Every structure is written in structure tokens, then in C-alpha cells.
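Lab manual, section 2.4: Encoding a predicted structure.

Procedure: take the sequence of the chain (325 residues), apply the prediction step described in section 2.3, and record the output as C-alpha cells. A sample record is shown.
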Amino acid sequence: MRRIALTAVLLLCPAVAHAWGGTGHAVIDRAAIQAIPDSGPVFLRRYVDYISASAGLPDSWRGDSEGFSKIEEDPNHGWFREQFTFLKPIPRSRYEFILALYKHYETIRDSDPATAARTNVRWTGTLPYAAMEAYERLIVCMRAIRAAQARGGDASVPEQHCAFQAIRLGHYIGDGSQPLHNSANSDGWLGPNPNGYTRDRSIHGRFESRFVDGMGLTAADIVPKIGAPAHLHGDMFDAVLAFLDQSGDRMETVYKLEKRDGFSNTADKDVRALVYERTAAGAAMLRDMLCRAWAESAAPPARVTPSPLDFSNPRFNPETGSSPA
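Recorded output:
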């Protein structure tokens, strides 16, 4: 009953249309949960309707009227790689990333004011940090589930916490699977344009919402394309960055296909193939992160010594007051 009531409240909230639209995000979340193996966090299957119905929720936190929420949330939905090619490696801290952007802005604001105007957190994005934050909160929630199960108690509350974090993670990973969320050309081509790509901002919505809705995308279309679980080992932040790079590499393909007929033909096999491939990639990455979080939750929290807040920690950064992850 509590899940039903919460879903009803969310459905009454005003919707904001961004990224993949309602259909794409809901399909990615549902397909990811359907693809969880029996060794994974199968409890999420009980919450699949709530999660998929709420897949667009993070977009509703970006309204102009909610200024505090908007300024924090807006960057979480993009990763405009062209804007920070100067920054290698990518910092393992949201705040170190933001500080690096500002330092570069100060360096170029007089010599290259046009580039400087977009060298800030809003026009670069913070998507991988938002995804990792939700991922690690899932690990914490899942530890609480295991603890409740071990003592024979009720795990429904931590399960609901996990379902909410799955909504957040699913949205950011879903955004990341859409090529236009990984480029400064997110809403029309910028800068030199020798190939004559559209500069119309509506390309974003015409691709991810109008075309996807028109083709009638469903979870059944992409579940067979997800494949076996991966990302079982290795650094998850690096895996998220690689996932975003793979998606961003398809950005120009979106523009090439748009030149054909502006995405007006929902029977276009090439556009449909791109939608299938990208949404399946998003669902696979989400499934993998959910399963990896569940596996990580089986171990107690790692002891970090010295603490990330300890000035004696060799990685302590006085500019952020902490050491990076």
C-alpha cells in the first residue's frame, strides 16, 4: 500500500520532458530490472512498476521555479566532453572537477571569452558524479537489506530506499546512453558546420521523444539485446566514463540520420537500430551497476585510514576539504 500511495503522489507531480522522454527512460529501467539474474538484487523486481513509472522524476527537479534544486540538478544530466578536453585525467571528485573548470575559465576568459562562457559546471555537466553518488547510496541501502535479512527482520524500508536510488541511477545512466547528452552539440550543432548539420534545438526532442514514442519502443524490444552481466570487477567510475565515451562517439551519427528526414519517418531502420542499440546499452549498464552494488554490499564498509577528512591523508585536498574517492 505504501508503494502504491507513493507512486500516486509522484504521478501527480508536473512532468518535465528531457532526455529519452518518458518512454525511453521507463523502458530502460524496466528492461534493466528484467535482466537482473537470480544472483542479483531480485527484490527490485517487486518495485519495477514504481521505478519505471518514476523514471523521469529527476527531470522534475530542474524547474526554473525551484532555483536551489535546479542549479544543483541541471548539470547532473549531461557530460559535454568537448568542453573539458584540457582536463586529463578526469578528477575523482565532483568538487575538484568544478574547481578545475573555474581555474581554466580564469585562464582563458580574456583570450577566448566565447569558450570561457561555457567553461562552467552547467555547460560541461556532472553526470558521472551523479551516477556514482546514486550507485554508492545503493550499496549502503543494500547493506541495510542484508542486515535486516540476517536478523530475520523486515527489509521493506531499505528496499524502498534502494528503489528510489535505482530511479536516480537509472535516470542518469539513461541520459548517458543518449549520445546528445555527451556533447556540447546537445541541442543543435555549434561552431563550424561543414556538413550542414541542423542547428535547430528541437533535434534533441525529435530524436529521443517524438521518434521513440512514435516507434512504440518497449522493454521487450531491448531485453534480448542486453547480454550477460559485465562490469563485475574493476573501477566503476572508470567504467562509467568509458560508457559515456562510447555513447558520445555516436553523437554525429544522430546528426547524420537527422539530415535524412528530420526523424519524421518512424519506420527508418537505421534510426530504430540506433535507438535499440543505445537504450539496450543503457539498460545493460544500469543492470550491471545494480548487480555490482548488490555484490559490493555483501562486504562490510572498507575502513579508510587516515579518514578522507584527515589533513594527514596523503590525498587530502585543502581546496575541497577532503581526499577524492
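Check your result against the sample. The chain has one domain: 22-297.
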